[in-house]
Each structure stands twice: as C-alpha cells, then as structure tokens.
Amino acid sequence: MTRNEIVQPFRCDEALPIVTWNIPYDEACDNHISRTLGCSRPFLIISRSMSSTTDAVDRISKALSSAHIAGIHRGMKPHTWYSEVLEISKEIEQSGADSVITIGGGSIIDGAKAAVFAVSNEVDTMQTMDDLFRMSHERLTRADGSSCPGVLSSELGLKPSAIPIVTVSTTLSGGEYNHVGGATNDLTKLKQLFVDPALSGPRVIVLDPVLTLGVPQQVWLSTGMRAIDHCVESFCAKEVTTEASDTALAGLKLLIPALLRTAKDPKDLDARLAAQRGACESMKGLCVYQTPLGASHGIGHQLGPFGVPHAETSCILLPAVLKYNYSANYERQAKLFAIMWEDTVVSEVLRKHSLSPGSSDLGDLLDAIICELELPRSLRRYRIGEDQLRSIAKNSLKDAMCRTNPIPITTEEQVMAILEKCF
C-alpha cells in the first residue's frame, strides 16, 4: 500500500470490496489492478466527457507499471441501454481483458457490471441479455426486494461475473457499492434490474475529489441528492436495523453540508471528499444490512427512460414520497428532521426558506435543500405529459422497491397519486 493511501473495507467482515482515497486515482488503479486483484490486462470504460476534457486515459496508461490497457470504450448513454452493453461485452471478450477500470458516473458503472455479467454468460443478443437480467433479478431477489445470498448460481443456470472491476466514480449516486445494477431495454424502455449471482459489485472503489472538478455542477449536486435519497429511504424503511440507521445518519451528516458547501464553492476539495465518503455510507443500508428501499427508488427507476436523468428522479420524487408515507413512518421522519435541524449549516438554509421545526416536516426540509441547490423539482421540466404517467405507473409496479415502500405500492392509482404531486 502506497504511503499516505487510506484503504478501508466497505464491509467490516470482508476483505473486498475496498474503498481507497488520499492518493491520485491513477496511482490507486496501478496499486490495486496488479497487487490487489493480480490482473494485468484491464479494459477501460470512460465517460465521453472525462475522455475529451481530461488526460485520464493517458494518466491511467502511463501509471500502470505492471499492466497494459487491453482496450478502451469511450462514453455511454444515460440509463445503460442493452444495445450498448452488448457492444461493450463483445469488446471486452475480444480484447482478452482480465479486469475492467471505469472512470465516470452511474451509467458507466452499471454498464461495466452488466457487460462482465453478460460475458460470463455468453450473451450475444439483446433478447438473451434481457432473459439473463430478468432471470437473475427474479430468482436472486426475494418478494421484499432483498437479495438471496443462499441461492447457488449453479442451480439457476447463471454464471457469476469472472472479470473484476476497479471503479473511479466521478459522481455520488453510489452504484459502485451495489451488486445490483440496472439496464434499459431498447424496445420496451423498461429499466431492468439485474443481480450478479456472486452478489459482488466492483472490487476496488477509488475516491479522488480532484477528478470530480470536471463534472458539471448539476450532475454533481443531483447525484448527491440521489445519495441523500439512499440515506433517507434506508432510515425511514419499514424494517431497519440500528446499524443501517447509524450509517444512514452518518451519510446524511456528511452529504447535506458538503453539497451546500460545494454549491457555494465548487473547488472545495474537502467538501467534495466528504460528499464522496457520505455516498459510501449511504449505500451500506441497502448493500450491507439488506435494508429495502422504497418508492422514490422504485418509481424513479422508470422515470429515466422518459428523459429524467437518473439522479434527478430523487429531486422530483423524494419529497412527494415522504409526504405519501407520512402516516406510516412519521416518527422516523420526525426524528430525522430533528437531527438534521441541529446542523447549523442546514438550519441556516431551512430558516432562509421560512421553515421551522413546529410547522414543517421532512418532505419540506428536503424540498428546501433541493431548491437551495437549484435542482429540478417538477416533471413538467422534462415535458412528460399526463398521458405518459400511466405508462410510468405500470412499469413502476414491476419494481420490487415499490412493494417494499413503507406503504406498499401495488396499484397504478397509488403511483399516480405520487406522480401527480410531482407536477
């Protein structure tokens, strides 16, 4: 381990995945591709913006002392479409790569997870890809949306991914910590979740706040709201452990002040690293403690194919979902409201938006934070008409996270009631 590098396991009882920071991302990739993973031919998947506006490709190529880049794929459309995943999986297979490095946000990360899963299962068409992803999710997910760690992949005819991933994430959505991924069917526009039978995502997660400076401000802040959504829905879940509550709170206490600081000063690297570490904490409820999430995620998955950026779905939905759920978890919401109000940075913003503890709730608090960050709050912004809401509602019912909402979402009318609050 390089001097000054900080490395921590994501799960306290497992050696991998690890989270590393405090050294430049290229040095971290060199350290862990060869020494941690024992690999020598990484395939690089990098966002188009990072490829065109930074020297990341050259830096990675020069930094790899014991490895050589097997191939490069530049760019991926938002929401990770099957057609592009199929293209990347073929490129990985043909290159002879033994590992993957990703540099970019959530779509790039999901694309890598989907592609290596497809390679292991010899997927060669979009239909076989859809069959694989649906089967993995149906058979490796319980009715409540949690994973089934005891199921043997050999019993299902599914092969776990054999190619490890090192990810340098430039956003805050947290997909790098999750063994579940999502990809969108080009024909149906349905966002299909998939689960690797090994129940493992990327093996090494690299945090480098300097690299995030090139990320558009709205992307940075909205993906931070996505991480806040992870924390809030974990804390307010129907069934939540003390450990999951603690990590959700730890994430929120890092994320909200850090986002407010970077909104004022985008070059604040300490705040950016705090937000990255908060995003890590935000995923532990779901990925470590198996805490089921709710309708903000379940409905949000289906807004993407209709033109809403993945992270911005949380800005639109989370306040409305909290108000919809208030009768079922008002004590949890009130507790979280009180804790957040104690933060001086947060309370200053809330007072600016004329909120007070006696007359506001958690939905109001988050609405004020979203407005302060100047992020979208309405579906009208994306030109989604009321005639499209039924299609979104129908697709949402197929998502397990709607069933695990504090008030289970089982009818189109329930989804419509939430969506109508988002106009």
Automatic annotation (TrEMBL):
Show the GO MF annotations: alcohol dehydrogenase (NAD+) activity; metal ion binding
State whether keyword Isomerase applies: no
Q: Cite the InterPro entries for this sequence.
A: ADH_Fe/GldA, ADH_Fe_C, Alcohol_dehydrogenase_Fe
Q: Which GO terms describe its cellular component?
A: mitochondrion
Gene3D superfamilies on file: 3.40.50.1970, Dehydroquinate synthase-like - alpha domain (1.20.1090.10)
- Which domain of life does this protein belong to? Eukaryota
Q: Which UniProt keywords apply?
A: Oxidoreductase
Residue span, Alcohol dehydrogenase iron-type/glycerol dehydrogenase GldA domain = 35-209
Q: Where in this chain does the record put each Fe-containing alcohol dehydrogenase-like C-terminal domain?
A: 222-422
Pfam family, any one: ADH_Fe_C
Q: What is this protein called?
A: Uncharacterized protein
Upper classification of the source organism reads: Eukaryota, Fungi, Dikarya, Ascomycota, Pezizomycotina
